[in-house]
């Protein structure tokens, strides 16, 4: 078993040395599917027809919710039924929070999903990791309006008063009015929605002032001529 594990790590290191691109590394690396229990992964997370087996101690380290569920209540049932999610979403989440043997990096595609789960289970270390990623990649996130909106919704449930949240609100306020109206603001807290539109109004007024100043300069130039 140790030889197999060692060989697997060598393959991972070889891939890293050949190409340090995160996306290429993700595509080439194999992440666990958590489908089989092991001596240390005996806690079952059930989602639909699929079961995922994880280390209960690791879950408890990350989440006070699971610490209470598994060790404080001490129920005989060693299983948690995950609702309001699909098996593929749960798998992606587990891969992003668990070293088995390596943890899947956060990306523009999965950060809103991971942060939503982290908020649900009060996983502070995961929330902090997601917030750091979002703050570092706000410009990339803003290129996709839907992703930007999803991340802002998830972030509003995590830390609505953070500087990262302010950046996201500013990015949302920069979206065109017709595109902004198509977003599902019912999923976002009312105070955050109000802040988005307040900033949108400020941006519009600023744009109008600049346009007015430009028109005056043009008119002044014509008179001089």
Automatic annotation (TrEMBL):
Residues 41-138 form the BTB domain. InterPro entries: BTB/POZ_dom (IPR000210), SKP1/BTB/POZ_sf (IPR011333). Residues 205-225 are annotated as: Disordered. It comes from the Eukaryota. Pfam families: BTB. This is BTB domain-containing protein. It comes from Caenorhabditis japonica.
